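Record 1 of the preview.
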Amino acid sequence: MARALQTTNDSILMHQVLTQLEATLEATNSVVQDLLRNHEPGAPFAASHMKSLPDAAFFAKGGRAERGVEEPILMTLAEDAELELPMKRLIALRNERYQESHPRYWAIANFDLHSSKPRLFVFDVIANETSSYLCSHGRGSEGPTDDGIADVFSNVEGSKATSLGIYRCAETYQGENGYSLKLDGLEETNSRARSRAIVIHGADYVSLRFSQQYGRIGRSEGCPALDQLVARKVIDQLKQGSLLMHWKTP
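->
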């Protein structure tokens, strides 16, 4: 009788173990399939290929949440920088997709400007002020020229070009270029930002001294690289939910 009872208990325990193992295998298979669906053929798996975090992780709260206050401030600041059209697009996307997000800092990289000019504009809706910084474009964005003007834009792997469009500034990390900020491309023109490892980081080739010596700043592999002197400050302003736009007048 005791042996029969023990056998029954063992069978129940074995069934529970097998059930748990099956559930674990199903969950693992789901993760693997998700990775495969979001993996670029022929490219190695890396942290930059992982899916972005959920939207709720990037609902910024540092700005002005009062209805009707934030947008006029942004438009006034953008008008002073002659960037009204891209700012309207930033606001429209935020209102459509991230209504609960109210970042203090908004940013536009104006690639109409030569790379020797400060062309990353950061708009502060609390202080009602705009700051501008040197910002690189990708080496693939100059085509056959080397004149400091970005004329070619691409979302293709290996292009080493800047991608136009709106980005969500996401999480920070410590990488080969130091303290860096991951970007999520929100439009068809920049949808591969994560897989291309397009991030904001500091670079020695982005500086006033470099610009004075060569007539332009250096070029990245598609990232909006900044002067090392200001990179950490700007990254900390934009991280966790600010919107950034890479702009070129159509």
